[in-house]
Design a protein that fits this description.
The protein is about 65% helix and about 5% strand. By secondary structure, it is mainly alpha-helical. It has one domain. The strands form 2 sheets. Strands 1-2 form a two-stranded antiparallel ribbon. The longest helix has 29 residues.
Length: about 375
């Protein structure tokens, strides 16, 4: 299978192409009026282009094409229809998001588009095969359950990324950290012959990292462009595919490596922890809106990033805090898996405690409370 260096080269292609394409998209969006106007629930005060997903999609297409042309990636593409399914499903998800950015389509229409993309994944076999339940056993999915699980997984991932996209650079940074962590996890499984090969998950993960890294310089506060639903739904689809084909597959007869906690090999929990911030935010949003009798698509200012700003943290500090939480959660699950050691709990736990104290006891927060 491809080396880490080959994967990183493809990630670099995605980053450079996305970085170069984004200013062109900004110019085009301003010319045609594809901008997001400020309102009572936004934190920006001027119209900003909101179709950054176009640049990301271009970066994805170019990086995907380059990988197809390189001989080292032949095992992923030769006699394998899964890449074609990913390309079609990703295109559907991108178009659905772009239509919402430009024409503001309804929530049911977005769900229909997401289901359509999921059906394409199922048709081409881009699905998880099993679920390893912690402390129990491996549950192999029947043909009846595969479509349902795939639709729910894609809906969950796309919703999580979409909901967290509320501050400049927040979603792009969290996805970049999460995708890179998952890339490292997939490489560890591959090196231990625990992953069913060929597997397109590592390639999608590193391309996702590259797109986000290339987009971030234009998206960090003060943002020149937002990724919009075209970017958020597209990224969610890629992460859903990567996590399902890595976490939901294993080589025949593969067993957890000696010394590794069974819990950390559960495909249900590795992606949940790595993408913990957007998923927790989504769960709180569902509970919050259900209590108010509102639909999930109803916008509000109760997300984690909004609460941090209400505490007195500015946009940049709020984003950096949530980025750091994502990195710590990733380290929490990856370090024991990669090193066969549980000693990571002490430094990672200390770092989490320090970050929590920093969040609530920052000098600016204390001054604001004193002023109240």
């Amino acid at each position: 299978m491809p080396s880490i260096g080959a994967y990183l080269a493809i990630g670099a292609v995605a980053a450079v192409v996305t970085f170069v394409a984004t200013p062109l998209v900004i110019r085009f969006a301003n010319r045609v009026g594809w901008v997001y106007e400020p309102n009572e629930r936004t934190v920006h005060t001027r119209p900003v282009p909101d179709v950054g997903g176009i640049a990301m999609f271009v970066g994805f297409l170019v990086a995907f094409a380059v990988s197809r042309l390189l001989n080292v990636f032949d095992p992923l593409f030769a006699r394998n229809f899964e890449p074609r399914g990913v390309l079609i499903a990703a295109s559907i998800m991108f178009v659905v998001g772009l239509l919402d950015d430009v024409r503001d389509i309804s929530a049911p229409a977005k769900v229909v588009g997401t289901v359509l993309a999921s059906v394409v994944l199922v048709w081409y076999g881009v699905t998880m095969f099993l679920v390893r339940l912690p402390f129990l056993d491996v549950v192999y999915l029947s043909s009846d359950w595969v479509p349902i699980v795939t639709v729910l997984w894609v809906l969950g991932m796309t919703s999580a990324i979409n909901l967290i996209d509320g501050l400049d650079g927040l979603a792009a940074g969290i996805v970049a950290i999460g995708a890179f962590s998952f890339f490292l996890y997939s490489q560890h499984l591959s090196e231990g012959d625990q992953l069913l090969e060929p597997n397109i998950g590592p390639l999608l993960s590193i391309i996702t990292v590259g797109m986000c890294v290339g987009f971030l310089p234009h998206n960090f506060n003060p943002a020149k462009i937002f990724m919009g639903d075209s970017g958020a739904l597209f990224l969610g689809l890629l992460m859903a595919v990567a996590t399902s084909v890595v976490g939901g597959r294993e080589a025949p007869g593969a067993e957890p490596a000696a010394g590794q906690a069974y819990f950390f090999l559960a495909p249900l929990f590795i992606p949940l922890f790595i993408l913990g911030v957007p998923i927790v935010d989504m769960l709180f949003a569902i509970i919050r809106r259900a209590r108010k009798g509102q639909g999930l698509a109803t916008a509000d200012k109760g997300h984690l990033h909004h609460r941090l700003m209400e505490m007195g943290h500015g946009q940049r500090r709020s984003v950096l805090i949530l980025w750091t939480w994502t990195a710590l959660l990733s380290a929490f699950v990856l370090y024991p898996v990669v090193t066969n050691s549980g000693m990571a709990y002490i430094p990672v736990g200390a770092a989490m405690l320090g970050l929590a104290l920093y969040t609530v006891l920052h000098p600016q927060i204390r001054r604001q409370r004193a002023a109240e």
